[in-house]
Every structure is written in structure tokens, then in C-alpha cells.
Amino acid sequence: MVDLTRRFDVLVIGGGNAALCAAISARRAGASVLVLEGAPKFYRGGNTRHTRNMRCAHDAATEILTGPYTEEEFWKDLLLVTGGQTDEELARFMIHESKDILNWIVEQGVRWQPSLGGTLSLGRTNSFFLGGGRAMLNALYRTAEELGVDVLYNAEVIDLKIEDGMFLSAQLKQPVGGKTEVRASTLVAAAGGFEANIEWLKEYWGEAADNFLIRGTPYNRGAILKMLLAKGVQETGDPTQCHAVAIDARAPKFDGGIITRHDSVVFGIVVNKHAERFYDEGEDIWPKRYAIWGRLVAAQPDQIAYIIFDSTVVTSFMPTLFPPIAGATIAELAGKLELDASALEKTITEFNAAVQPGTFDHTILDDCATQGIAPAKTHWARRIETAPYLAYPVRPGITFTYLGTRVNKQSRMLMKDGKPSANMFAAGEIMAGNVLGKGYAAGIGMTIGSVFGRVAGREAAKNARN
């Protein structure tokens, strides 16, 4: 049993990667730590359960990474995907710190493995967790508990007492025991974004949000974020920006995870409900572009689209939970998708006629392109002509939102007057908007969580001692 009458040095709200990195870091610095996870134990960990890898800078190849990935290359990649909408000081700090995270995370019991075939060409830039996100999460929990971190599940925080930028206590509600006040010298907020709060999403997206699918936990409803912003913490990030990918339209409303994501876009074409293409499927290397497709599909009629390809490419990407829909002819496929057959045939015929000769190589920006159609497909363009013809229906799959709390390099929250909070820190999705103004690069969410989680825990422990 956790003694809630005592005063803890550090209170961590949240139960995913960022929260656990903060808890472990604080505990290793000598602080007493309580973690409040709002979900039941089985669903602990937020979106960390669904992850596979982390993007970290490194100067040389390792046993699990095929080559160097310098800080400057990481920065250029981040600059590209965000269109410059990032806090450069915080972003460069995160990238520099990520080099040490590769080893630090192993010291906390996490294990790496080489990347699998078909995993977005990430063998050089991203480290993959042995056993996936859940195994990584279990390792962090095991280490935290061995160090003496207290953890409570089904622990819903319903209020925060904050005065003049100083955290005093949290009001906790549990299924058994009712409401309790929890006191701590410092607070680390690591409770995720508001992606599972459809009503909040609709404030910015309108009725279209009803057609969004939530890739991760149904527990990330943004309650802690809303409380902090209401109590004087400065916000950062665009509320309409998020990490959103194209996922299978047959996926569940919540918690479908990574096995519902489609990485087949570059191997075919994407059409909307009118059987019309609407964006360049070969714009750039997939890890730098896969996260734009959620927003692209969100802008289409009824928030639905279809990835169309043929039987020659079915082994070129990771399989997903749902099998592709097949047709012996384009017309038969169109019928199964409830698309206009003549419109789909016209789109594919025009696309095939526009494909120019080239040497296909999905690992580089190759010379396989179209000519004379709009939108163009600038790389990896190949004719769709070998039956059976295949398709995946896709909808926007929201991973996490970018509206969050403003922080400095110590992960300390800034108040609306610009002054640092007395004793409040943030890590993970709840502050990701500092780094991600828009766009996404594979594995960077885990980088943000690990780097700023470690910093937040260390700084919170120091603050508590003082």
C-alpha cells in the first residue's frame, strides 16, 4: 500500500515513457517519487505501448544501427518536417541529449534490436526496442519499482492546487477510497495530449473529428493539460497540429496501435472517395512523410481515402492487421470500395500513362517519376497493371496532439508572465509542441519523452532538495 499521508519529493502524473524516465531519474537523484497512472495496470503506459523505436543522434554505427546519424543531420531532418516551426534552442538541446539516451535507456533495463525489413528504412537513424513498446515499458516499470518508486493505477487526478506558479497538491480520485489529497514538493506532468477527447478535437476540427480514429490510449483526454493552462501555465503549439497518420479505416475507434498503420503509400497511389488523387505519394523518403498523411486524409471528403496498388509490391512493406481488399479488375476493386468504377479506371489509366522509365529504389529519392499529371508522383512511380489489384481504406489516425505547456531546457514549465514555475516540470506529449510545431519524423516522440523525462526528473529532484 502507498502511504498517501506522507509528502513526496516528486509527484509524477502519467504512466508512459516520459513519466517513467522522470520517475527513475528523480529516484536515482535521491528523491522520493510517486507516479499516478490514470489507467488500469493492464493499459498503463499511454501511447508508449504502441511504439517500436526511438530516433537518437549517434556518431558511428553500432550493433543495431547501420551508420552514423549526426546531430546536424538530425537537426536538418527536424527542420524539414516542421517547416522551421520549432524552438531551435530546445530542439538542438534535445538532439544533443539524445546521444546519451541511447546508453542511458539501456542502463534502465531496455534492450535494442536491429530494425526489421520494411520498417520505413530506419536502420541507420532509429533504434528499435526488443519486444516493442510494451517490453520497453515493462523494463522501465521494473526498474522504477526496484528503485523504490511508488506507483498507483486507476489514479485519476481531478484537480491541481497551484498558487503563484507553485504546485502545492493534487486531488486524486480512485475507484476504491474516493478522493484524496496528495502533497509533493515538485510536480512532473507527463500525462499526454488530448487526442482521445473528441469534443475537444471538434473545437478545432469541427464535425470532421467524428471520423478520426485514435491510434493510442483512450485515457489521453487532456485533463491535466487543461488544468495547467487554466491555472496560469503558458501554452505552446497549434491546437490543430498533431501526429496523424493514415491508418486502416477498419481499425477500432481507440487503441488500434501501430499494427493498423499503413506504410504502402509510396508503392502505389492514394485516391479520395471520388477516385481522384490529391497529393504526391513519392514526395520524400517515407519516414519523413508518413506522418503528413493523416492530415491529408482529414482534408478529404468524409475523411476517407484508399491506397491502391497491385500484386507486384505486396511484400515490399510491413503487413498490417487487416488484409488488403482485392479485385481481379480495377472495376471489381472499385465496386468493393464503393467507388465509381469508371472514375477509378480513368485515374489509374492516366497515372500509368504518365509513369516515366527509371530505376526503382525505395531507399533513395530515385528517378521513377510521372510526367504530365497533377499531382505528380516525383519518386517511386510504377505502373499499376498486375492483377489482382489491391487497396487499403484509410482514415486519419491521431497519435498525439501538439498543444502543450511551454518549458525551458530544464523542462520547467513557464507561466503566462514568462517566468519559470517555482516547482513544476513537464515531459513527453504534454510539452511536445515546443519541438514539434507541425510535422513528424519517425521515433521523435519517444526521443522527446526520454530526453525531457530524464531532465525533468533530475531537475525536480534538485528542486525538492532546495
What does this structure look like?
The structure is a single chain. By secondary structure, the chain is an alpha/beta fold. It folds into two domains: 7-238 and 402-465, FAD/NAD(P)-binding domain (3-Layer(bba) Sandwich); 244-397, Succinate dehydrogenase/fumarate reductase flavoprotein, catalytic domain (Flavocytochrome C3, Chain A, domain 1, Alpha-Beta Complex), CATH 3.90.700.10. Helix content is 27%, strand content 22%. It is built from ten helices and 19 strands. It has helices spanning 17-28, 71-82, 88-107, 132-147, 198-205, 223-230, 293-298, 330-337, 341-354, 444-465; strands at 7-13, 33-36, 53-55, 112-113, 126-129, 150-152, 156-163, 166-174, 178-189, 213-214, 235-236, 242-248, 269-272, 305-310, 325-327, 389-401, 404-405, 412-414, 420-426. The strands form four sheets. Strands 1, 2, 6, 7, 8, 9, 18 and 19 form an eight-stranded mixed β-sheet that branches. Strands 10, 12, 13, 14, 15 and 16 form a six-stranded mixed β-sheet that branches. Helix 1 (17-28) runs parallel beside helix 4, helix 3 crosses helix 10 (444-465) and helix 8 (330-337) crosses helix 9 (341-354).
